[in-house]
Amino acid sequence: MMKIWVPLDSAAKALGADEVAYALAAAANARGIKVQIIRNGSRGMVWLEPLVEVEINGIRHGFGPAAPDDADDILSGSGAKALGPVEDLDWMRRQTRLTFARCGVIDPLSLDEYQANGGLVGLRRAIAMTGQQVVDEVKTSGLRGRGGAGFPTGIKWQTVHDATAPQKYVVCNADEGDSGTFADRMIIEGDPFSLIEGMAIAGLGVGATRGYVYLRSEYPDAIRVLQQAVRIARNGGLLGPDVLGSGRAFDIEVRVGAGAYVCGEETSLLNSLEGKRGVVRAKPPLPALEGFLGRPTVVNNVISLATVPVIFEKGAQHYADFGLGRSRGTVTLQIAGNVARGGLFETAFGMTLDQAVNDIGGGTASGRPVKAVQVGGPLGAYMPVAKFDTPLGYEELDSQGGLIGHAGLVVFDDTADMLGMARFAMEFCAVESCGKCTPCRIGAVRGVETIDRIAAGDGNAIGLLTDLCDTMRDGSLCALGGFTPYPVMSALTHFPDDFARRKEAAE
Question: Which of 443, 423, 431, 426 is nearest to 502 (CA)?
Fold first, then answer.
């Protein structure tokens, strides 16, 4: 029987993967060929989606971007869309796939395939350890938050471990709202058991018996896959009152958010999870001490938790051996925007922006010169070409006025209007603000007005914009207001001509 893999990933489906799967089934039936069509996750090469894979002599060969009309060629193993062995493609060969090692390889909802590819090795190892040993392993790995400011995961777990309470929780922040980011969605749709296993290990480490995944409503496919995976895991003894026969309990519930960007901030998320309005909480107290329902709570991003199993499977030192400086392990780059080859590329920390954008991404899709790349989502700084020698690392980007955030890279060519992009950042903040603090609630509205004054030719308003950004950065309760100055000030600093032209035009 011929094995064929067609992605169920949302990006692949948006590009016609379902239609390709139906066409392949119909063509195989018409030709009397017995086929097994497996819906896998994405390999991350979005410019080649739908990427169909066919097993030929035990090796998976790729065909893409596939269309329904290509079905006969794919079944024959030939045609213009034939790419050769998938693992030999340059995009795949150059990666260090740890977190995403199984994504696109296995059937996402097959627990047997998950285990056959290294799954549950880490959890079984963690079961044999004390809670403190589990926490120490994460500390040794150097794992840091993959969705925000890069706080050391092990330190957060240690705080929850040391807290005394009748109930503790593990909460997964899957409210992936940053523009140009899709790693959380991809891992949930392509390898959901890695997230479940990571949360279970976290529960064993800190003494939590309940876990929640807060997943955004805009991801219907991810919701469906994860809910099915939780049921399969529970039926398979991976979740429940007796995790893998250990006598220890841990279970997970999937909660769906209502679409507020601010609920990607951990305290707003916790309020929403409790059924309250999603507004920021003042800190202290930290969620690690008083989080969900006032109890000690680990709040981690999807990629942070999905990386935990490989740390326990291969050992903390193995993971820590990748990267540079204090940025250990791998980073899941999400390359998007005006770029020739967009997708997910997992590599050790340390690759430069130039390598990521021009080498891996292939430059702009328009063929025009690159002007800037925004790193870290809508609150990230715009990095000019002059800074493209900056390595991708937490401290390295911070030293250049940027932040790595969720590692989204949105590319812009030389036609981009950076004053317009600065205005968008302020407008985005104004629309998405929870309204809890004045610097964010009022500052963003004033920011839009001030940039409009600059656009009308009022050069004196540039100083006012700078002062306003200082106030928002220093006075906001959370990263929404506090980080909005990053894109605004980086646009103003690195692309002053885009602001000065307005003044000259007015004169």
Answer: 423
Q: The tokens 């940039």 sit on which residue?
A: 451
Report the distance separating Cα 102 and Cα 436, nearest Å. Answer: 41
Which are the contacts of 64, defined by CB distance < 8 A and separation ≥ 6? 45, 48, 49, 50, 51, 52, 81, 83
Contact call for residues 381 and 487 (beta carbons, < 8 A): yes
DSSP 138: H
pLDDT digits (tens, 9 = 90+) for 459-499: 889 999 999 999 999 999 998 999 999 999 999 999 999 99
Residue type, 222: A
The yes-or-no verdict on residue 379 having pLDDT over 70 is yes
**Rounded Cα–Cα distance for residues 271 and 262 (Å):** 11
CA 363 to chain centre: 22
In whole angstroms, what is the distance from residue 491 CA to residue 498 CA?
9
CA atoms of 209 and 235, how far apart (whole Å): 17
> Checking DSSP bridges between strand 330-337 and strand 343-348, what pairing results, if any?
antiparallel
Evaluate whether 372 touches 384 at the Cβ level (below 8 Å): yes
Residue type, 435: G
Report all structural domains of the chain as residue ranges with CATH numbers, in order of start: 2-93 (3.40.30.10), 111-320 (3.40.50.11540), 323-413 (3.10.20.600), 418-506 (1.20.1440.230)
- Distances in Å between the Cα of 438 and the Cα atoms of 241, 341, 424, 467 are 46, 41, 20, 15
- Residue reference for tokens 């002059």: 386
pLDDT (mean) for 380-409: 94
pTM of the model: 0.95
- How would you label 344-361 residue by residue, b for 16+ Cβ within 10 Å and e otherwise? bbbbbbbbbbbbbbbebb
215, 187 contact by CB (below 8 A): no
CB-CB contact of 223 with 256 (8 Å): yes
Note whether 202 and 172 are within 8 A (CB): no
- Of 94, 224, 205, residue with least CA distance to 159: 205
Cβ atoms of 250 and 447 within 8 Å: the answer is no
**The dihedral formed by the CA atoms of 134, 302, 376 and 371, expressed in degrees to the nearest 10:** 120
- With 0-12 CB in 10 A as exposed, 13-18 as middle and 19+ as buried, what is 179? middle
C-alpha distances in angstroms, 297 versus 158, 167, 262? 11, 9, 19
Confidence of residue 259 (pLDDT cuts 50, 70, 90): confident
Distance CA 110, CA 429 (A): 41
